[in-house]
Amino acid sequence: MLTVVSWANWTVDMVGGDEYCMAEMSEEAIRSYWKEHREQLRQCETQRSTLTNLLIVVTAALSALIVQQEFTLNAMPLCFFDVLAGAYGAVAVSKYYERASHHLFQTRALTRTLVEQGVLGSDEELIRARVEHYRRFPRMHRVRLHRLWLYLHLAIVLYGLSLLFPCIIIA
Q1: What share of the chain is helix, strand, coil (3-state, %, to 5)?
Q2: Beta 2-5 vs 19-21: how paired, if at all?
Q3: Half-sphere exposure for 3 (CA within 13 Å, toward CB)
Q4: Does residue 75 carry a pLDDT above 70?
Q5: CA distance 135 to 115
Q6: Alpha-carbon dihedral of residues 157, 159, 165, 167, nearest 10 degrees?
Q7: Higher pLDDT, 145 or 115
Q8: Which of 7, 94, 136, 156 could anchor a disulfide with 113, C-beta 3.0 to 4.6 Å?
Q9: In the chain, how many H helices and how many E strands?
Q10: pLDDT at residue 117 is higher than 90
């Protein structure tokens, strides 16, 4: 079964080749769907931030325990846990980015539909604002925020490894 979806019409091509079109989605339904995707996007960002904060606190606590254990063999499992926590964080924030991107693409498609239906004005003012923003921040607008989140978690992995090496040397 092949399903082709356009935001103005829902078209489904069935195995037998029959085509069914539902009535155009109402403006209210599109706005509601748009709002839901924006809320899901915000939730992904909030969860990513919360997870990162939690892992930073866990890393700090583990660091204190490792130092208290004086980098002995008993501290090695804590170092491994810190490395695993950082690796988990890197994978999780990558997944949050993927989900946030999905919701962002959905809202952009719905916005285009609203513009095409004449509900929203043209994009000209938004495009001018974006060009001005890029002019004011020529380097920073190229830095991808999801990479900064990812690098932070990879730094936790490296930090855990740096705590592990003294444990191995001292033991």
Answers
A1: 75, 5, 20
A2: unpaired
A3: 3
A4: yes
A5: 26
A6: -100
A7: 145
A8: 7
A9: 4, 3
A10: no
